[in-house]
Structures are given as C-alpha cells and as structure tokens.
Amino acid sequence: MTAAAIAASGLGKDFGAVRALDRLDLEVREAEFFGFLGPNGAGKTTTVHLLATLLAPSRGGARVAGYDVARDGLAVRRRIGLVFQETTLDRDLTVEENLRFAARLWDLPRRVAEPRIDRLLSQFGLDGRRREPVRALSGGLRRALDIARGILHEPRVLFLDEPTAGLDPRARRSLWQLIRALRESTGLTVFLTTHYVEEAEPCDRVAILDGGRLAALGAPADLKGEAGVGSLEEVFLARTGHPFADGGAA
Amino acid sequence: MGARAVYGIVVREWLRFLRQRGRVLSSLARPFVWLIFAGAGFAAVFAGRDAIDYRVYMAPGLLGMVVMFGALLAALSTVTDRDAGVLRMVLVAPIRRSTIAIGKALAATLLGTVQTLAVAAVLLPLVGLRPTWDGALLALAGIVLSSLATGSLGVLLAAGMRSIENFAGVMNFVVFPMLFLSGALYPIGHLGPVLHVLTYLNPLAYGVDLLKHALLAPWTGAGYGGELRVALDVVALVGFAVVGLAGATPLLAREGGVTRAAFRERA
Ligand SMILES: Nc1ncnc2c1ncn2[C@@H]1O[C@H](COP(=O)(O)OP(=O)(O)OP(=O)(O)O)[C@@H](O)[C@H]1O
Ligand SMILES: [Mg+2]
Question: Whose C-alpha in A74, A233, B65, B87 is 20 to 30 A from the C-alpha of B152?
Fold first, then answer.
C-alpha cells in the first residue's frame, strides 16, 4: 500500500521530429507536494498530459494512483484532477453550470454533487457569483473556478499546470492559501508545474526539466545546498540552458 | 455506460443553445425565407404544379433543411470546444471516447428535433398540410432519425476538422450539396444518373424521403410522395449514425484534444 502516487519509467514523447520528453524516470510519493520546473518548451505540459492519459507515450510508461496510464486510462482518470495551463471552462455557462457539467462527467449523483458545489463555491470566494456567466469573471476567479472544478470529484492526485500564470499577486497568494488548506485537509498529492520558480520553494521536492530531460531532482533545501546558492531560482538558472546566453547550460 | 456523462453533455449543449438567440431565431426563420423566395420562384416552373402546390411539395424538404442546419451546427460545436479547451476537460473525465461522441450526437439530435418541431408547428398549417396521426408519428420518427444521422456525421466532421475556419468549406461542399441532392426542392428521379447515384450517399435524402412518406402520402400516386421504401430510409439513417459515431470516436482524442493551431499560438 506504499505505492507511489506517480511512477514514470523511461517515459517519453515525440511530436514528429520534436522530442518533447526524452526518457523520464520519476517517483512522486503519496501526499507529496511536488514541483515540476522548467523553462518554456521544457516538456512540462507534455509530461502532465502523458500522466493524465491525454497523450499516448512514444516510449516508456507510467503508473498514476496505482494504475497504468496506457492500459487503465479510465481508472487513472477517475483518481486524478487536472487544472490545465489554459482555462478550460465553458465561458457561456454560469459558474454553477460549469461545476454541474463536471459533476455529471465524473458521475457524481446530484445529492453528492450539490453540497460539494456549495462548499467549494464558498471556500473559493465564488458564492455570490454562482449565477454569473464565466466570461464575466476576472482571471483570478476563473482560475479559482478551474481549480474548484479540478477537485470536485475529490481526486487523489492533483495536477496543476502553471495555475498562477497571468494572475496578480493578490490572486496568486489566495490561490496558494487555498491549495495549502486543501493539502492539509485531504492529504492530496499535488504535482505542480511552474516557471515562477519561487512558487516551488514550499514544495517537498522539485524536479527541474530542461529540453525534455531531467536536470535536477531533490528537496529545495538540498538542491540549494549542493549548488551553494540561496534560492531555488539560482538553482534553476544554473541547471537550465537559457536562450539569451551563448551555449546553453552555464 | 456513462449515462450521467451523456446527460451532462446534452444539458450543456441545450443551455448553450438557449443562450444563442441569434442562432435560434435564424434557424427558425430560415425555412420561411426559403418558402417565400424559393417557393415563389420554383412554383412557376415546377413540373408538378397541376398535381400538387409547390409549397406543399416543399414542406418536407424544408423540415429536412431545419434538421440538417439544427443538428449539423450543434455537432460542429465540437470544433469550438476544441479551440476553447473544453474538449480537453471532457477528455480528462473518466469516460470513454465513445461516450463523448454519443453525448454530442444525442445533443445534436435533441436540438435538431426541437427546432424542426417548432418550425413544423407553423409551417404545416401555413401550407395547409394536415397529416394523419400515423403520418405525424412517422414524421416525428423521421425528424429524430435524420437529426441523429446528420448529428453523428456532424460530430465525425467536426472531430476531423482542424479549426472553425473550414466552416465556409463545410457549407459549400457539405451543406448545399446535401440540400440540393436530397429531394427537398425537386424529386430525385429528375436528376441525371451521376447525381442520382450521389443521392444514395446523402443522409438527408433518406430523411426527406421519410418525411415525404409521412406528409405527402396522398400525392404518392402522382410521383411526389416518398420514392424509396420506408424500411430502407430507416436502415440507412441508422447506418449513417453508426458510421458517424464509430468514425468520430478515435478522432476526438487526437493530440489530447488540442489543435496544432491552438498549440502554435501558445508557443
Ligand atoms: N501537440 C504538439 N505538436 C507539436 N509539438 C508539440 C506539441 N505539444 C508540445 N510540443 C513541443 O514539445 C515541446 C514541449 O512542450 P510543452 O508544452 O510540454 O512545454 P512546457 O514545458 O509545458 O512549456 P511552457 O512553459 O511554455 O508551457 C516544445 O518544444 C513544443 O514545441
Ligand atoms: Mg506548459
């Protein structure tokens, strides 16, 4: 029963000639807060989509919540929540209609869904807006709604793909408070991708991906110690190639 | 097999439809525009005008047209779903790809049927067609089945489309040929051999034929009723629905529900 929440072995994906993810070996423990960092195009979203069974691996495989992503897609999808990099809400529906739509897709009966929807809406500060169309919400509230929808079915593993991109500092902070509260109350495994490196400081462990390859893996404190630097951001800059420098990795 | 998910997909499409006033109004008005303008023009040259008033002859075809626009446009919302990201969210739900295709097709069936019944309630009295009970039931079956067939093929078309930019192409190369080769405006028998063969590939032709059986039975003897067997119409419509759903299922999940175009914009 100590199965890892996520276990990838040799996982890779090509898009035509583009090797988006090379061969990823990775284990994320249950209830872990795991940060997945990397520059634009590193392969973070590709990894998340592979783990969420939206893409078929080109090589290797992975188990998520105990099930094989290639063979047991339905079982995996039943146990995960995914907040996509771009919002996937239906802008023409209201806040509560979006949540009800998700509840039906996840096969939650009304008597289970309605109290959960009420609770999430008040928890996420959306209570007064439930009958408004999503197009009328600010970016921060849309993101909050994306996350509320992602956890409506009480997943065991939650993937957050750059959840705070485009949010102002206040919206960002309240999102992090929500996520922390959620982790404390449910023991949820959180797999977070971001390129705001400082957001990954509170993670239990982080991986740094660069050009489809793992460049570093460990607890933030250990990575900083090894590199002899004071912030995760400096670790990030040291371990990843950057397009404005001469020859990639410093 | 995902009944609640299918229900959720149908409810969503229904809510979206109710909010698109323009779409509702134009779909309800379109057949009457055709009735006035095409009806007036064709009535003068229509070969059968001694046997049947052209506006009466046109009625089943106009209903078929409402079915096609209603169901096809509803199904094509799959393309906007892909662009807006909603499709990805549906793909990450614990349901089979076939459930998504079925949900979309049933939503299209509902929208096509409701719009067509609304139009029929005005159109039939207007042209003086009073179907028998049997005729009305057969017409209802025809409307539901043709909505299902065009809706399913619409989902297939939408699942294979890259972006909504192909929309004009769909109108020119799918909608108009389907309409003109359906027997909606003139009996199929009058077409040349090549076009006549094409009508057999046209789902709308079977739908319109079924509606003619239902509504124009008194004129069958004069050659203006249904031209094919009712059973053939039914089997063909169900067949098109099955082909559409089976074809759409694998296409829906392609590239994880992301278009290459949408992807490029982001990168
Ligand atoms: N559907 C696709 N078709 C073609 N190439 C793709 C596709 N998806 C991703 N790629 C390529 O794969 C690589 C990894 O992309 P991915 O989106 O996983 O990166 P990312 O780390 O999430 O980047 P970002 O921080 O910009 O979100 C990129 O080079 C990208 O061009
Ligand atoms: Mg990404």
Answer: A74
Answer whether 0.80 is exceeded by the pTM. yes
**A85 CB within 6 A, ligand 1:** yes
What's the N-to-C CA distance of chain B in angstroms? 37
> Of the residues A45, A193, A213, which should be mutated to test ligand 1's pocket, given the most ligand atoms within 8 Å of the CB?
A45
Domain assignments of chain A as residue spans, ordered by start: 90-154
Instruction: Give residues whose Cβ lies within 5 Å of ion ligand 2.
Output: A 44-45, 85
Nearest alpha carbon to residue B178 among B102, B67, B52, B25: B67
Half-sphere exposure of A164 (CA within 13 A, CB side): 21
- Beta strand spans in A55-187 (E): 59-64, 67-68, 80-83, 157-161
Residue with tokens 């691996």: A57
What is the average pLDDT across A58-65? 96
pLDDT-derived band at A186 (thresholds 50, 70, 90) equals: confident
Statement: residue B266 has pLDDT above 80: no
DSSP line for B135-203:
HHHHHHHHHHHHHHHHHHHHHHHHHH-S-GGGHHHHIIIIIHHHHHTTTSSS-GGGS-HHHHHHHTT-H
- How, if at all, do strands A213-218 and A205-210 pair? antiparallel
Q: Is B11 an interface residue toward A (CB < 8 Å)?
A: yes
Our answer on whether the CB atom of A46 is closer than 6 Å to any ligand 1 atom is: yes
Does the beta carbon of B267 sit less than 6 angstroms from any atom of ligand 1? Answer: yes
The alpha carbon dihedral of B166, B168, B173, B176 has a sign of positive
- CB contacts of B4 in chain A (<8 Å) are 104, 107-109
Find the DSSP H helices in A61-138. 73-79, 95-105, 110-123
Q: Assign A243 a pLDDT band (cuts: 50, 70, 90).
A: low
* Geometric angle at alpha carbon A157, from A156 and A162, rounded to 5°: 145
Q: Is residue A246 over pLDDT 50?
A: no
Q: Are the beta carbons of B86 and A86 separated by less than 8 Å?
A: no
B257 touches chain A (CB under 8 A): yes
CA A148–ligand 1 middle distance (angstroms) = 26
Place of tokens 């914009």: B265
What's the CA gap between B115 and B107, in Å, rounded? 12
Composition of chain B by helix, strand, coil, percent to 5: 80, 0, 20
